[in-house]
Amino acid sequence: MSPLLLTLAAATPPDSGNALVKITQDFGINLPSILAQMVSFSVVAYVLWRFAFKPVMATLDERQKKIASGLQYAEEMKAKLEAAHQASESQLKDAQVKARDILAEAQKAAKNFAEKQQQEAVERSAALLAKAQEAIELEKKKMLAEARTEIARLVVATTQKVLGQQLSEADRSRYNEAAGRELTNV
Prior knowledge:
Number of domains: 1
């Protein structure tokens, strides 16, 4: 019997068996129809639960799991992306520091090279100047020697004309030496 009918039967006094029949007639309840409907509803509910709701619920659970794993994967990828971004920024900063160091080293090397080249140029110019001074000294000495020789010749020639005589070789040599000493002292 259905729980409703049992409740109604329990509520009615035992001596009134007709009362149950009267109530069912007043409300238009047909007991065999209600029992058949209940069995039919139970069968339909079981079939729907077994073949419709259960697979749909399983599919929904599976989708929820996939969505949750997708969200977790997205969070992991977001964390990895952030870590990769930080690593690339760190590498970029390191590269910038290295570039600055290399640039500073190159500038220092260029400055040292320029200073070395300048120093070498100064040394070469000093060497050239020294050589030129030596050449001038040699030329001066050569000119002085030539001038002495010419002056000595002129002194001898003048002395010969003034004295009116021919000088011997010893006299000529003496006059040349005296003229040379006088020129050296000047």
